[in-house]
Amino acid sequence: MRFFLLYFLFLFITSPVWAEPATTNSMKHMQVTQPAPDPVQKKEITPAPEKTSPLPEEDKTAPQLEPEKETTKENYFMPLEKTAPWAMMDEIISENKEQQQIAINAAEKDASIVPPMGLLFVSKRLAAQNKIDDAALFFFLAQLRAQFDAKRLSRKTPDVAFIQSSQGTGTRVTKWLLADSNRIKRLMERLSVMEAQTAYAYDPGFNSQNPQPMEEWEKLRARVENDVMLMLQSLAGVTE
């Protein structure tokens, strides 16, 4: 049964709705020519000491992650032409743990400017620190936003590199969730709150010649969020 559920989630992420190969030039934020990180932003971030001890199985006291500024209906979606690549991408993909922690702190402070691939790497780094509760939160936020980007930019699927990068962390997160249905329910609550409080102010990393009008974005976003929540709800029901 565990194998079936893992396979079910794998299909959810890599099915034709999610995983049909996209163009290979879409990862502009991963190129060598990426703009240098904003020195002001780096100055404001203080590295936190790395914690290697695992969290308790049910850490109900874990703080809710909140954006840096209040999100309103008016600023929830930023026009694509006003977005910029995330300044911490080099740090989060680095093998240097101190640099990774700087990027994690930045994402926890303001996830609105972090693209799905950045959120995915944050999830991976948190999982490596045994912070699976938060790793799951960032993982599914990344999945939700990657699917939304595909819809608003008139692409059939998220970027193929994103799909491939999701598999390792996704397996670990899913195994942890399936051990206790209460973990899934808690994740759904946290994901719903974070999604509502975190604006879409990031550069998605690829362009589209036929983007959907901004007036349609909320409808598309709500549809994607509903699909993700239904999938998690079905997993919670099966594990009970």
Notes on the structure:
- The protein has ten helices and no strands.
- By secondary structure, the chain is mostly helical.
- It has one domain (66-239).
- α6 runs antiparallel to α7, α6 crosses α8 (160-178) and α7 runs antiparallel to α8 (160-178).
- The two termini are 12 Å apart.
- 37% of the residues are buried.
- The model is unreliable at 1-8, 14-56 and 58-68 (pLDDT under 50).
* Radius of gyration from CA coordinates: 17 Å
Q: Number of helical segments?
A: 10
Class based on secondary structure composition and strand pairing: mainly alpha
Main beta-sheet strand count, sense and barrel state:
none
List the helices and strands in order. Answer: HHHHHHHHHH
List how many beta strands DSSP finds. Answer: 0
Overall mean pLDDT score? 79
Helix content class = 55-70%
Shape: globular
Low-confidence stretches: 1-8, 14-56, 58-68
